[in-house]
Predict the structure.
Amino acid sequence: MFTRVILGLTAICLLGGVTASAPAKTKQENINLAVQSKQWDLVERLAREGIQRNGFHFSLGHLYVLALEKQKRAEEGLATVRTWATDFNGAGGKAVLADALMSSGYYNEARKVLRELENLRPDAPDAQNYLEGLRERGYKKTYRLTWQIKAEEAATMPEEWFAPPQDTLNQRLLKLNLQGVEAVSEKRDKYGNRLIKLRPLKTGPIVVKADVQLSPLSVKELLPRLKGNLSPEVQKYLNTSKGIVTDTDEIQAVIQSFAKEAWEKRILGVMNYANSRLTYCPPGSPPGIDNSVDVMRRGGGHCEALTSVIAACLRTTGVPARMIRGQSAIVGEHGDMKQHTVIEYWLPGIGWVDWDHNMPYFEMRSNFVRLCSYNEVGDEGVSPGFYFQGREFKAAGVYRNGPYHYERIARSLD
């Protein structure tokens, strides 16, 4: 998930064109306390009142947008932010508008605003951090992922199926480079994942590199294309599968208020439930946590456990759903990847789209590399790449052959 930069309120001239004085000390202390205690309704009110009373202040605009986003009401404040951007025609107003547009799911319009700010290099550290966060969220990014297997492991490694990054609505594999191994065959598995069989050359370490382009995307912009019926191939993702139990009394209680609504409202209802009622717990949760029924009763679990509940709820409302596994923590210029699982659901006329339960509604992550889709909790049939997927842990809790690395090699608006 993208890390939000919460700006301090002591900087007065953050981005050129903003001249209003900083909020009064008492008001500043009040809003800081509200942020620290996550009273987002109070943050919203204080930020709005501060701007109404003293004129536009960049940090207050940022906090207003953040507070609405935290309350899942980002679009409600968009008209207000547009007014600020017009009345206070400076870079600060435009930056806050770009923030509000992305929080509301309008990435195409947000990128137009970001283009106007492309050459801006503010002096104030708070402004630099905020703009960098907006660019990281709104720009297309190309990453180079590296899986490396030590020579001693490669010497005994058999032929191995490898799931390269898949092509999706917002992800594209640009290049795949193999060292110390050769591709001998290729296939699609029962879920449509592309798999490549790799044969070790036994000449030293194995290095596999993949260049992947990730694009910010909100499904909200695609919903007008929603139409059509479900094919038999997709209908199988409406049924109970291992670890994903549909149509239980608990699920019926969750979905009863929206089960007969329009397609997108059913999905939104499930997303709202996941955001408000399910809590993420690190891997290694208690036994039984991987069954969607147990996870619902406990109210939380690790990423695959939470995803199983979301899948069960979506399927019960008539929305086909499955899980997709990939590499996460793709933030910044370089770092180590970690395995992660998110929900993937079907939109007629659009296709498979995914969502992480911590993200804004309908937003597809642009810092998550998708490797393979699957239909059951712990589905071993689609866990190719014993040596590549990073699922094996030593006693010390570190990756068997990893961690696996990424570096950002390009970033642009186009």
About this structure: Confidence is low (pLDDT under 50) at residues 7-24, 391-402. The chain is about 35% helix and 25% strand.
